[in-house]
Design a protein that fits this description.
This protein has eight helices and no strands. The protein is mainly α. It has one domain. Helix 4 runs antiparallel to helix 5, helix 5 packs antiparallel against helix 6 and helix 6 runs antiparallel to helix 8.
Length: 238
C-alpha cells in the first residue's frame, strides 16, 4: 500500500514538474485531455447500454416480420435497446396502421430515428474541437517558449551558455509533444465513435427499407397481411 502511495506521489510530482516547465499551455492541455477522456468513457458506456453493435436482434425480428408475423417481430425488436431494433419496432407499429398516410409515416420514422442518432452524436463536437486545438496549442506553447529562450540568450550577452539555449528549447518543445499526445488518441476515439454511429444509421435505414418493401419479397400468389398492403420507400437516417 505504501509503495502504491509512493508511486502516486511520484506521478504527481512529475506532473507538477511538467506543468511548471510548460506553463499555462501545458496546464490547459492536461485539462483538455481529462475532458476528452471523460467524454470518451461516457460515450463508451452509452454505446454499451444501447448495444450499438447488436445487429442480430433487428435482423432476426425483420426475418420474422417478412414471414407475416408482425406481432412476434415487434415483441422481439422492443426487447432490445439497440437503435435499429427500436426503429424497426416503430416502423412495424406504424406499418400496421391504415389511418396514417405513407409520407407521414415515413416522416415519423425519420424523426424517431433521427432523435436517437442525435443522442448518440451528443458531445462529439467537443472531441472534434480538442483534437483540432490540442496540436495548435502545443505549437503555440513551443513558439512562446522559443521566444523566451532567445530572450534569455540575448540577455546573457557575450556570456552565452549553450546549456541555456538547449534547455530553453527542450522545454519549449515539451508543449508540442504534449499537444500531440492529447490529439492523437482523441482523434482515434472520435473516429471510432463516429464509425459506430454511421454503422448504426446504416442499419436503421436498411431495416426500415425492408419493412416498407416486405411485400416485394413474397412469391407470386402469396397473400399479403394487413401490415404489408402498402408500398414504401427508403427512410435515410444518415
Amino acid at each position: 500500500m505504501n509503495a502504491f502511495i509512493d508511486q502516486l506521489a511520484g506521478i504527481g510530482d512529475a506532473l507538477s514538474n511538467i506543468v511548471f516547465l510548460g506553463g499555462p499551455v501545458v496546464l490547459l492541455l492536461i485539462v483538455m485531455s481529462i475532458v476528452a477522456a471523460a467524454i470518451v468513457i461516457a460515450k463508451a458506456v452509452q454505446f454499451r447500454r444501447v448495444r450499438i453493435n447488436d445487429r442480430r436482434t433487428a435482423r432476426s425480428a425483420l426475418s420474422i416480420y417478412r414471414t407475416g408475423n408482425a406481432g412476434a417481430a415487434m415483441t422481439m425488436a422492443r426487447r432490445s435497446p439497440n437503435p435499429a431494433s427500436r426503429v424497426l419496432a416503430r416502423a412495424i407499429q406504424l406499418r400496421a396502421r391504415h389511418d396514417i398516410p405513407e409520407p407521414v409515416m415515413r416522416e415519423e420514422i425519420l424523426q424517431y430515428g433521427g432523435d436517437m442518432l442525435e443522442s448518440l452524436r451528443s458531445h462529439l463536437r467537443p472531441l472534434e474541437v480538442i483534437a483540432s486545438l490540442a496540436p495548435l496549442l502545443g505549437l503555440f506553447g513551443t513558439v512562446l517558449g522559443m521566444i523566451e529562450a532567445f530572450r534569455d540568450l540575448e540577455a546573457a550577452g557575450s556570456q552565452v551558455n549553450p546549456a541555456l539555449l538547449s534547455g530553453g528549447i527542450w522545454q519549449a518543445l515539451l508543449t508540442t509533444a504534449i499537444g500531440l499526445a492529447v490529439a492523437m488518441p482523441t482523434i482515434v476515439a472520435l473516429n471510432w465513435l463516429e464509425r459506430a454511429i454511421d454503422r448504426a444509421a446504416h442499419e436503421m435505414d436498411s431495416v426500415v427499407t425492408r419493412v416498407f418493401t416486405a411485400d416485394l419479397s413474397r412469391q407470386p400468389g402469396q397473400t399479403l397481411s394487413d401490415e404489408d398492403d402498402e408500398h414504401g420507400h427508403s427512410t435515410p437516417f444518415i
